[in-house]
Amino acid sequence: MDYTETLVRHINGYNGLIINTTLDRVVLQNGEHTLREVVIHPGGVTVIPVDDEGYVYCVRQFRYPMQEHLLEVPAGKLEHGEDPLQCAIRELSEETGISASEYIYLGKVYPSPGFCREVLYIYMARGLIFGTPHPDKNEFLDIEKIHIDELVRLVMDNEITDAKTVIAVLKAKNILSKQK
Fold first, then answer.
1. Stretch 11-27: mean pLDDT, rounded?
2. Which residues have a Cβ under 8 Å from the Cβ of 118 and sit 6 or more positions away?
3. Which of 10, 73, 135, 150 has the most beta carbons within 10 angstroms of its beta carbon?
4. What is the pLDDT of residues 108-137, one digit of tens each?
5. What's the domain range around 48?
6. Catalytic residue positions?
7. Helix, strand, or coil here: 141?
């Protein structure tokens, strides 16, 4: 069955530094009208760098909306028209100083499709080459080296709650398990 909702009109919106929002009136499949709030985000990438011994280089940073310091895999926002792989390469270098000889595409996810039009592209980096981090001017983070098995435990024990990190860790562990 087709449950497509049709836009009647944009009622209002907000244009911000990173996100835009709209409040839309739509027609449902049954002919009824309702409102939909939509957050429009440019999308982003996350990259899980795994060395030959199975260690992952994560970042810990304060996330203002959650008012917590979160352990995450490196990630960042896509610039307008930017290729997701190029964004992954840039963000990994900026946040950790790491580059890689291989980037494996792990897929894309919609973090919260009920209200947000954001797409996250996930990569695993292998063949790591270490350099010096060069984060953005107002980006403050610490790098932590943690074994993939420990990250899986932290995910399963709800000690890692960042969705992109949860997905990246579980997908990477699955692929690495198949390579043994």
1. 94
2. 39, 41, 42, 43, 44, 110, 111, 112
3. 73
4. 999 999 999 999 999 999 999 999 999 889
5. 44-178
6. 139
7. coil
